[in-house]
Design goal:
- The structure holds three protein chains of three kinds.
- By secondary structure, chain A is an alpha+beta fold.
- In chain A, about 25% of the residues lie in helices and about 25% in strands.
- Among the domains of chain A are: about 25-30 and about 465-605, Aldehyde Oxidoreductase, domain 4; about 380-460 and about 610-755, Aldehyde oxidase/xanthine dehydrogenase, molybdopterin binding domain (Aldehyde Oxidoreductase, domain 4, 2-Layer Sandwich).
- Residues about 1-10 of chain A have low confidence and may be disordered.
- In chain B, strands 2-1-5-3-4 form a five-stranded mixed β-sheet, with helices on both faces.
- Chain B is an alpha+beta fold.
- Chain B has five helices and five strands; from the N terminus they run E-E-H-E-E-E-H-H-H-H.
- Chain C has a single domain (about 5-75), classed as Beta-grasp domain (Ubiquitin-like (UB roll)).
- Chain C has a five-stranded mixed β-sheet with strand order 2-1-5-3-4.
- The mean pLDDT of chain C is about 90.
- The chains are: A alpha+beta, B alpha+beta, C alpha+beta.
- Chains in contact: A-B, A-C.
- At the A-B interface, helix 1 and helix 17 of A face helix 2, helix 3, helix 4 and helix 5 of B.
Chain lengths: ~750, ~160, ~80
């Protein structure tokens, strides 16, 4: 079953323009309601007691004093949650299971990281809730812990899960370890390849765990009534995902939970899972009242889902002309307390930009006593790209080739087999390289202590299930409802696509994000899928309405429907006796009762054909040799975007991804002390870029339309975070003449490298 | 512990509320007065999402105790527009697409308003350093800076006219 | 007779050393059923954890998709994104 549609034949009126977003006025006046902004009658405050130990057996929990405190209406521990045995996969590339999700939401027999939820209370005020936590006494048997990925892989490492035997190996090991899974991807003969190389580079790369850094902490209000009907108001990347996961963790029917999406204050993958919601529902059930739970920033860092820290080894061999003939890559990624790092995706994306005849890529998913990792914008890809793009830069340097030339020589093109298997079709990598190379920023001359770095990046983008419903109001305006939270401006794009098809001005189309009871299923907002997949459903629904409107006009005029065309928002009779007559959408809507009833259409689909995206970035930096401080002088990001439905929001996605990547490269990292506790769990010391850290971020959007989308759209949100780590590292290398292979490139590290010269 | 009575002026209106001594002004605004436009992003004065103007001074309301608002004049995001008319900063933010998730936006707008009241013609560098106390994770600040400078230009023109 | 290539290590264990298969089935559903019959557990694993790339286009959860004669069919691990 194909989802390809006829493309709108005429020039576009709405798609490609920059209208003001429909939710804008509420957002600039503080009126928009996010997860923590809802109040309900009788609402209680929920708080969580968290393990102070990174690894410990929970011997006993005594909640009696807490329960007896006046104002406390509910207390829960892991024992109050059903044991979930399903190792049904949660979806996504991590391979994490529902069972692990349930054990992460609240600890059962073991606390596996500092911050792991151990108990929770609901009380009539935040002060009483805090006091109740202090009255819960937990007996821990502290165990040795391990966080560093190579330490966790060592044969004598403390083992987190006695039932973890590395998957993906030819024979199952007989001893439990912390290596959840091994991945491997091979082509050709690397020994022969390296033997034929004129130049070989080999290095080891280390990155630290980083956080998505959304400014809005996790927040929800849950209300479970005595009849078993539940409601959750929360900010998440997918209300259907929240419903499913809560149902599974609590042993409830999904249909008994209605999840209402609040506005979301950033997600970037970190809100594609649940933390508070099942606990809030469990507390609400006991208390018989709604329960609000909001994470503090400290809890967000310690107890939500950062991305992996890693150790990587990359060896590349090339002939004199720049052709890479062999690549050997090892990726070791931290999964946190439960399996599910994005190392599998990293294995697939590592060499995706290059046409290399011989390679071997090995990846290890390794657990350790740190928070379970969650998705972070193109999960796994930025980490692997840091290593490979740094190595390609070293090769270019050794061969005396410019960084664009070496990438162009090895670039993947249509018809080339991707390193991850299928043959590429309709990709725009070479065009993107060109767009970056030709950008006027590259004419800027560099001064002393300044350097320029180039890097490329790849991400898949996904399609998936979406439902959209378009309904025409009696005055001829339209409402577009979908089930995807709007984290980047997608709501505006939905309205624009519907307006384009219907021939209405975009202000006459109102988009809404509906709850789980009011719209059919939609896969969550992530994987750069919303404009592509939900946009496809919206477009198809609008096209169905157009067909219906033509039929109604034909009926009104009593002519065959073949004589009716839809033009600029009106049905026009193009032939026969009634030729030249027109009926606008408003005319037809006003008389809809006469022509068959209300006008509307719903489309549910599973969008296929999401195309991959490529980015090529150029970063100019200046390094202060005395302090090691790096200033980003200039940044250029070229990306193939398919078709920019709303160009401002596509630019915004690119600029935001770049900013996160720059932070990852220069300053962000989880710092753990010897007791396994995060030392910098706040925004002062977990240092994300501020306005004075960045220049204007210049974007070059390359439009190679995706033939599988009615408007040629392709996912854009994730690609931009993939190149910056290496673009910045390569720029620093150019500036100081020495390569640093450990991130972040914070001032002490740069000073040490300069001093070591 | 009994609660303290606080009287203040918020967005031009007299308000009264009861609060615990340890409650922040941010929580009092949100929970006592229902003004949920100011947000908590960190609770430690590092992200600026709770930015308000108190007696003419830009502050993080999570670092101010509610009782400290006694007798003072407080301006929040809810008071930036004039009734139904958006402030030029708000209009320019929408025109320039200077917000994506919108969570940092109230704090950024209040901070930018304070900037333009102190300096009607800031350079790009001055805008960036003034807004360095407002974290944004979505936009990379590019369109925010452009919107602020464009609003400043419009406001200078309006004053000159 | 579609030729199917299996990438990644998520489902590799079920097929031993084999990474390429010739199948009769002309749809994704039939291909999976055939592989399940030949290598118990493999079809199930593919359905849960793999996407199917048909002539370069990646399909996720698309059992009804046709496998044209001579098409390039590659099974790759599912991607979720962030």
């Amino acid at each position: 079953m194909t989802d390809t549609l006829e493309r709108p034949a005429n020039a576009l009126n709405v798609v490609g323009t920059r209208p003001v977003r429909p939710d804008g006025a509420d957002k600039v006046t503080g009126r928009a309601t996010y997860g923590a902004d809802l109040t309900m009658a009788g609402m209680l405050t929920g708080r969580i007691l968290r393990s102070p130990h990174p690894h410990a057996r929970i011997v006993s929990i005594d909640t009696r004093k807490a329960k007896a405190l006046a104002g406390v209406k509910a207390v829960v521990t892991g024992a109050d949650f059903p044991s979930v045995d399903s190792d049904e996969a949660m979806g996504g590339e991590g391979g994490g299971s529902i069972r692990d999700l349930a054990r992460n939401v609240i600890a059962r027999d073991k606390a596996l990281y500092d911050g792991h939820a151990v108990a929770a209370v609901a009380a009539t005020s935040p002060e009483i809730a805090e006091e109740a936590l202090s009255l819960i006494s937990v007996k821990y048997e502290v165990l040795p812990h391990v966080i560093d990925v190579e330490a966790a892989m060592a044969p004598d490492a403390p083992v987190l899960h006695a039932d973890m035997f590395t998957a993906g190996l030819p024979t199952k090991p007989d001893k439990a370890s912390n290596i959840a899974q091994a991945h491997e991807s091979k082509r050709g003969d690397i020994a022969a390849g390296f033997a034929s190389a004129d130049v070989i580079v080999e290095d080891r790369y280390v990155t630290a765990a980083t956080h998505q850094g959304y400014i809005e902490p996790h927040a929800c209000v849950a209300s479970l009534s005595a009849d078993g009907q539940g409601m959750v108001w929360c900010s998440s990347q997918g209300q259907f995902m929240v419903r499913t996961y809560c149902a599974k963790v609590l042993g409830m029917e999904a249909s008994d939970i209605r999840v209402i999406p609040a506005e979301i204050g950033g997600g970037f993958g970190g809100k594609t899972t649940v933390y508070l919601e099942p606990i809030a529902l469990a507390l609400s059930r006991i208390a018989g009242a709604p329960v609000k739970m909001v994470m503090t920033r400290d809890e967000v860092f310690r107890a939500s889902g950062p991305t992996s820290g890693s150790v990587m080894e990359v060896k590349l061999g090339a002939t004199k002309d720049g052709k890479i003939v062999a690549a050997d890559v090892v990726l070791k990624f931290q999964a946190g307390a439960f399996p599910g790092s994005p190392v599998g995706a990293a294995v697939m994306t590592t060499l995706a930009c290059y046409d290399i005849p011989n390679f071997r890529i090995v990846g290890y998913d390794v657990v350790g006593n740190s928070p379970k990792v969650a998705a972070y914008r193109a999960p796994g890809a930025p980490i692997a790209a840091f290593a490979v793009e740094s190595a390609v830069d070293e090769l270019a340097d050794k061969l005396g080739l410019d960084p664009f030339k070496i990438r162009e020589v090895n670039a993947v093109r249509d018809g080339v087999q991707a390193s991850y298997g299928p043959t590429y079709r309709n990709i725009g990598y070479v065009e993107t390289l060109e767009a970056a190379r030709k950008h006027p920023n590259l004419l800027a001359k560099l001064g002393p202590n300044q350097g320029r770095g180039v890097a490329a990046g790849f991400w898949f983008n996904i399609g998936g299930e979406s439902t959209a419903s378009v309904n025409i109001n009696d005055d001829g305006t339209a409402v577009v409802a979908s089930g995807n939270p709007d984290i980047g401006g997608s709501r505006a794009s939905m309205a624009m696509m519907a307006a384009e098809v219907l021939g209405l001005p975009v202000e006459k189309v109102r988009p809404i994000v509906a709850d789980t009871a009011s719209i059919g299923y939609s896969m969550l907002t992530g994987g750069s899928r919303t404009t592509f997949a939900t946009g496809m459903a919206v477009t198809q629904a609008a096209q169905k309405i157009v067909e219906d409107l033509k039929r109604r006009a034909a009926q009104t005029w009593d002519v065959p429907v073949e004589q009716v065309e839809w033009m600029d928002g009106s049905a026009v009779c193009i032939d026969g006796a009634k030729r030249g007559q027109a009926l606008s959408l408003a005319d037809l809507a006003a008389k809809s009762g006469n022509t068959g009833g209300p006008i509307g259409a719903q489309v549910s689909l599973n969008a296929q054909g999401a195309g991959p995206g490529f980015g090529v970035h150029v970063c100019d930096v200046e390094v202060d040799p005395e302090t090691g401080h790096v200033t980003v002088l200039r940044y250029t990001a070229a990306q193939d975007v398919g078709k920019a439905i709303h160009p401002s929001y596509v630019e915004g996605q690119i600029q935001g991804g770049v900013a996160q990547g720059v932070g990852w490269a220069l300053n962000e990292e989880y710092i753990f002390d010897s007791a396994g506790r995060m030392e910098n769990s706040g925004f002062l010391d977990y240092r994300m870029p501020v306005a004075s850290d960045l220049p204007m971020i210049d974007t070059a959007m390359v439009e190679v339309p995706n033939p599988r989308h009615p408007f040629g759209a392709k996912g854009v949100g994730e690609v931009p975070i993939v190149p910056p780590l290496a673009a910045v590292a390569n720029a620093v290398r150019d500036a100081i003449g020495k390569r640093i292979t450990t991130l972040p490139l914070s001032p002490p590290r740069i000073r040490a490298a300069i001093d070591a010269k | 512990m009994s609660k303290t009575h606080v009287s203040a002026t918020v967005n031009g209106d007299p308000v009264e509320f009861l609060t615990e001594p340890g409650t922040t002004l941010l929580d009092a605004l949100r929970d006592n007065l229902g003004l949920t436009g100011s947000k908590e992003g960190c609770g430690s004065g590092d992200c600026g999402a709770c930015s308000i103007i108190m007696d003419g001074r830009l502050v993080c309301s999570c670092l101010v105790l509610a009782v400290e608002a006694e007798g003072r004049r407080v301006e929040t995001i809810e008071g930036v527009a004039s009734g139904g008319d958006l402030h030029p900063l708000q209009r320019k933010f929408l025109e320039h697409a200077a917000l994506q998730c919108g969570f940092c936006t109230p704090g950024v707008l209040v901070a930018a308003k304070a900037l333009l009241e102190a300096n009607a013609d800031p350079s790009e560098t001055e805008v960036r350093y003034w807004l360095a106390g407002n974290l944004c994770r979505c936009t990379g600040y590019d369109k925010i800076v452009r919107a602020v400078m464009d609003a400043a230009a419009e406001m200078r023109q309006a004053r000159a006219a | 007779m579609p030729h199917v290539v299996l990438m990644g290590s998520d489902c590799a264990a079920f097929a031993g050393e084999t990474r390429a298969f010739d199948v009769e089935g002309a749809t994704v559903r039939r291909m999976i059923a055939e592989l399940e019959a030949r290598y118990p557990g493999l079809g199930d694993c593919i359905e849960r954890r793999m996407s199917v790339a048909i002539d370069g286009e990646i399909h996720q959860d698309a059992l009804g998709e046709a496998l044209p004669e001579g098409a390039e069919v590659v099974l790759i691990p599912k991607i979720g994104g962030g």
